[in-house]
Amino acid sequence: MKGIISFALLEKEMVHEMRDTINRAEDVIDLEKQFSNIMKHFFSRVMEKQHIPGVVRDDDIIFNPEEPDYYSISARLKRIPGFRELLDSSDLKSVIGRFASSAHRKYLHLTRHREKARFKIR
Q1: Contact 52, 44 (CB under 8 A)
Q2: What's the pTM value of the predicted model, to 2 decimals?
Q3: Residues 79-111: b if buried by 16+ CB within 10 A, e if exposed
Q4: Which DSSP state fits 4?
Q5: In a 3-state reduction of DSSP, which class is residue 84?
Q6: pLDDT score for 2
Q7: 1 pLDDT tier (thresholds 50, 70, 90)
Q8: Which of the four, 33, 49, 54, 69, has the lowest number of CB atoms within 10 Å?
Q9: Where are the beta strands (DSSP E) in 1-122?
Q10: pLDDT for position 52
Q11: Rounded to an integer, what distance in angstroms lies between the CA atom of residue 118 and that of residue 101?
């Protein structure tokens, strides 16, 4: 049986940054951009750590509240050699799922309380 690669330590390093970034989102579009940016940073570090050549773009991992796991990964990223295997042999899906669930909670808050988001005082 193959061992599963874990990115829990990297998740712990980035979870505070993720929460802060998501909590600062003022509307749904901002939330989607923030999620994509943090996922780009996370996956860049993952690929660097696993020595997988390739560049992660902003639109490769996007927040999608219509998806069952609240995110989608681009076909371009899945075609990078070694990435698909890494996705299947690690806890990456779980880590992204936790980040996306956090973004989804903020999404629900923003859609329920639009007037608060629009008139937020800084």
Answers
A1: no
A2: 0.83
A3: ebeebeebeeebebeebbbebbebbbebbeebe
A4: P
A5: helix
A6: 55
A7: very low
A8: 49
A9: 61-63, 71-73
A10: 87
A11: 23
Helices (H) then strands (E): counts for the chain = 6, 2
d(CA 87, CA 68): 17
Task: Supply the DSSP symbol for 67.
Answer: S
- Alpha carbon distance 4, 90 (integer Å): 5
Long-range interactions of 86-93: CB distance < 8 A, separation 24+: 86/5, 86/46, 86/50, 86/52, 89/2, 89/4, 89/5, 90/4, 90/5, 90/6, 90/7, 91/4, 91/5, 91/6, 91/7, 91/8, 92/7, 92/46, 93/69
For residues 61 and 43, the answer to whether their CB atoms sit within 8 Å is yes
Q: Please, what sign has the CA dihedral across residues 72, 75, 76, 78?
A: positive
- Tokens coding 94: 């779980």
